[in-house]
């Protein structure tokens, strides 16, 4: 499930038994590219291995993702409702792009 995080335009996902999240799987990233992603996701996220099903082949495989505060119940209290790309991200796209540019 992709949750809305209080006062943030991007979502947080949690590991849930019956949960699923649609996404894009990147392959062939270098160690330095993974370190950049780790820095970008910051301390509120933890990289974790999850089971995924590829859409085009329906093959099951493993992939890394970033879970939101998997061991921090206080931070998890900031999760509420379902995050929507159209409702929670698109209205803030310009500010988000600027933040990403400043990060790099």
UniProtKB/TrEMBL annotation:
Transmembrane segments: none
CDD domains linked to this entry: GGCT_like
Cited SUPFAM superfamilies: Gamma-glutamyl cyclotransferase-like
Any one Gene Ontology molecular-function term assigned to this protein's record: transferase activity
UniProt keyword annotations, A-Z: Transferase
Residues of the Gamma-glutamylcyclotransferase AIG2-like domain: 3-84
Alphabetical list of Pfam families matching this protein: GGACT
Tree of life domain: Eukaryota
Assigned protein family: Belongs to the gamma-glutamylcyclotransferase family.
Record's protein name: Putative gamma-glutamylcyclotransferase
Native source species: Pinguiococcus pyrenoidosus
């Amino acid at each position: 499930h992709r949750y809305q995080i209080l006062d943030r335009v991007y979502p947080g996902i949690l590991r849930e038994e019956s949960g699923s999240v649609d996404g894009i799987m990147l392959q062939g990233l270098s160690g330095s590219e993974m370190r950049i992603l780790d820095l970008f996701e910051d301390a509120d996220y933890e990289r974790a291995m999850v089971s995924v099903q590829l859409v085009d082949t329906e093959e099951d495989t493993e992939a890394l993702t970033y879970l939101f505060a998997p061991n921090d119940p206080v931070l998890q209290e900031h999760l509420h409702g379902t995050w929507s790309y159209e409702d929670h991200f698109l209205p803030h796209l310009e500010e988000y792009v600027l933040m990403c540019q400043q990060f790099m």
